[in-house]
Structure formats: structure tokens, C-alpha cells
Amino acid sequence: VGDFTSIEATPLNRIARLFTENGEVDKSFMPGTGADGFINSIDISLFTDESGIGTENLITTKYVIGGGFSSYNGQPRSGIARIEADGSLDETFDPGRGIEDGSIFDVHVQNANKILVVGEFTSVDGYPRNGIVRFDENGKVDEAFDIGDGPDGPIYTVNQLRDGRVVIGGNFSGIGDYASRSLAVLDNDSGKPDESFQIGTGVLGDVYAIDVTVDSKIII
């Protein structure tokens, strides 16, 4: 994903799938006209299909994309969309008005296919959400996950610790009354800052990416 319109002369608007063997475009993945604006981030959702005999362990792959677009293949989707394995829009994921006043920098799919989204925005489908929001599997805003006033700057990246807590990075000096420069940990249920995470004077600069080791150390 990104901000391109073709690969090897194949018209593809900002999303494509390539074969790992040779790098060629996978033409079975057909996004149509794709996204009408840049895509910053992509993550994978896995679904178990238990609808028929012998399919109990069948896994369906879908892709969640986030960025600064307003439509996908001609259908309204503001900043976030979920895509079927064949590249078509998953219409069962409907975020309504979506991101109303900004763009998404990173997406992270959690267990139960809840989707964490971070960026630079203050409103999502009519809900006040400053820089971070969580969507339910159907695309509705998870009302229980609410960071309140949120950080005083953009959030660029999001990940999850092994114990379930959420870790965010960006360019901020704090979240409400909680001072934590450019890196913070949030409660997974409420979205509120975990004030037991004390980084001292914090990160002098921006945090663009986060990874988590198997023993729950945070790499930035």
C-alpha cells in the first residue's frame, strides 16, 4: 500500500498484492479503482468459517487499510476500509462517516478482529476521538474504548503488549494530565493511560514505529 497508481504498467491505485516467488503482480487480487487517496497502513484479519461440514478450520483472510482516502472502488469509505481476499470491498465492515477531519497513520487488528486506529483526527463517525479509536468487527466505534481528551499531538504508530495493553507512539508530550513524551501505554478495555508506565523525560523526538518482543519489551 502507499500512494502509487501503477506497478510494472499495471494500473493499481495505492494497493496491490505481489507474489513472493518473483515479485510479479497477483492479478487475482482486483481492487478495481482502489483508493482515491493515499494508504498509510495495512494489517490482516483472519476469520474462521464454521458454516459448513468440513470447514471448521477454514481461514478467510481480509485486509484492513487506513490512510487519507474518501472512497474505495467508488464506494464511500473515509480513512478506513476492510478488503476481501480478492481485493473487493468488504461491505459488512461499515464505519459510517469514518474519519471526519484528518487521516490515519497506522492500523492494528486485535483479537476478535477489533481494529485499533491511530492518526491525526478528532472525530470518527460523530464520536469525539482524538488521535485513537477502536472499531468493532462490524465497523462501529467501540464506545468503551475512549482516551478522553487524548494526546496533544499526532499518534503515528500503535501495537499491543503481550498482556493486552496498548502501546502508542507519536509526537506528543502527554495525554490529559498524564505526562509521557512521544510514548505511552493504554488500558486495553478503557483506552485510558496506564500511569504505571513511567518513561521519565520520555523520547525527545518522534516515534514512527513500535515492535514488541516475546518477553514484552518495547522497541521504538
Kindly list the characteristics that best describe this protein.
220 residues, globular, mainly beta, three-stranded antiparallel β-sheet
Structural notes for this entry:
With 220 residues, the protein is mainly beta. The chain has strands at residues 6-7, 10-11, 39-49, 58-67, 71-72, 75-76, 80-83, 103-109, 115-120, 123-124, 127-128, 132-135, 155-160, 166-170, 174-175, 178-179, 183-186, 211-212, 218-219. The two termini are 22 Å apart. The mean pLDDT is 94.
Describe the protein's topology.
Elements: E1 6-7, E2 10-11, E3 39-49, E4 58-67, E5 71-72, E6 75-76, E7 80-83, E8 103-109, E9 115-120, E10 123-124, E11 127-128, E12 132-135, E13 155-160, E14 166-170, E15 174-175, E16 178-179, E17 183-186, E18 211-212, E19 218-219
Antiparallel strand pairs: 1-2, 3-4, 4-7, 5-6, 8-9, 9-12, 10-11, 13-14, 14-17, 15-16, 18-19
Briefly, what is this?
Helix content is 0%, strand content 35%. It contains no helices and 19 strands. The protein has a 3-stranded antiparallel β-sheet with strand order 3-4-7, with no helix packed on it. A 3-stranded antiparallel β-sheet has the order 8-9-12, with no helix packed on it.
Largest β sheet strand count, sense and barrel closure: 3 strands, antiparallel
Q: Tell me the total number of β-strands.
A: 19
Query: Helical stretch count?
Result: 0
Q: How far is the N terminus from the C terminus?
A: 22 Å
Class by helix and strand content? mainly beta
